[in-house]
C-alpha cells in the first residue's frame, strides 16, 4: 500500500494513460486518490475496476459513498442487492441509512435492529439507530437508546455524548444534559464542548446536528468504523474510511482531524499539515487542529514554524492547558529548557483542582527541572505526578533511576522500579533501571539477568550495553564485560560516555572507579 499518496497518484495516473485497464494500476491509483481525499477523481477509477470485473473493496466503498452523496438510494440498494458489498462492518448500516433516505422510517429501524443483531455490531447498530431517530425528530426514542435504558449502556464517545446532550436539550432537559457533559468530560472539556455547555447553561436550546440526513448518517458510519479500526488496522486502510466520511460530510471536523492524524502517523507530514490547516478558524476544534499542525511541522523538521504556530495559539487561547503543554514539549525537544518550563508553568497555573490526567504535565516539567539541574523542584514535580497517578511506570522509573544515579533513597528507588517493571515488563529502559539499581546496591548476581533482559529488549542501545558490561565485570565475567563495552562503543554513545568506556577497556572498571573517587565494587546482600 503506497502511503506517499501524491507521488503515487502521479505515477499511477501516468501509467494508466498507457495501460488503462490494468487492474494493478487501477487499484493503486484508486488508493492514492482516496488517500489524498480526491474522491471525485477516485470514482471513475472505481467504475473502471468494477466494469472490468475486478473485485475491489475500496472501489465498492467509493461507489457506495458516491451514490449516497447523490442521494441515489434506490440505485445504491439495487446494486447492493445485486452483490456489491462495501464491507461486512458497514453494509448493514448503510442499507439502514438508505432506507432512511427513502423516507421509509419503519424499514430503516428494522434494518438498524438487524445490524445490531449481527455479531460485533450491536453498539454500532444501536448508536446509529439512535441518531436516525433523533434526525427524524423522535428524541424520546433516541434518549432511551443513548441513556442505556432501552438496550443497556453504550460506550461513551465524544460524538455520542454530544449527540445525547443535543437530544436532551430538544427534550427541554438542559440540567440532565449539563450533568451528562460534566460526568463525561469533567474539567477536561475542550472549547467545543465548553461552548455547547454554555448554551445549555444559558437555556438556549441546542439543535440536533450531529446527523441531519441520510448522507450525514452514512458519513457517520464511515467515521465510526474508522474510529474502531484506528490503531488496529493499517493506517492507510483506516484512512479510506475517514476520507469517505469527510467526502460525505465536509462539516465533520472530527473526520478531518482523524484523517490528518492518520497521515501524520504515516509520516506524510505535508498532507497532514494541509489537512489540519483546512479546519476553519471559527470551528471549535480549530485549536486542536493547530496543535496537530504544529506537531506535524515539528516532526517534519520545521521547528521554528511549529513554535510560531504554538506561540500564536497560546496568545489566542491562553486558557487551554494542552496548548501550553505542547509548546513546552516542543521547546524541551530542542533543549530550550527555560522556555519549556515557562510553558509548563502556564499550563499548571490553569489547573483549578487536582485531576489524574494532570500527572503528565508535572512529569514533563519535572524532566525539564532535572535537565536544568534544579533537582528539588524536579523531585517535587515527580512526587506530585505520583500522587495523581501512583502506579505510573514512566514516573516511577524516572524518579527511581534518578535516585539511583544520585545514590540516594536506594531501597525506595528499587521498590519504585520493581513496580514499573511489573507494569511494563517489556520496556527495555525500565528493565535496565532495575538491573542498574541492583548493581548500585551491590547485588551484582541479581542484576545480571535483568541487565541481560534489557540488552535483549534494546540490543543496540549504548547505555544498556555499557551497563551490562559493568555488571559482567562486577561478577568477574571480564571477557564478556569487554565485549559489551566494545558493543556499546559501536552504537555511537555520547562523547563523554565513549571516553569513559575506552578508559574501562584500557584499565578496567575497578581502576576507573578509583580514578573517579567512587566507592570500589563490593558485593552487597545477594540473598
Automatic annotation (TrEMBL):
Coiled coil location: none
First and last residues of every TPR repeat: 321-354, 359-392, 428-461, 462-495
Keyword presence, Zinc: no
A Pfam entry, by short name: TPR_16
Descriptive protein name: Tetratricopeptide repeat protein
UniProt xrefs under InterPro entries: TPR-like_helical_dom_sf (IPR011990), TPR_rpt (IPR019734)
SUPFAM superfamilies: TPR-like (SSF48452)
Lineage: Bacteria, Pseudomonadati, Pseudomonadota, Alphaproteobacteria, Rhodobacterales
Keywords annotated in UniProt: TPR repeat
Gene3D superfamilies assigned: Tetratricopeptide repeat domain
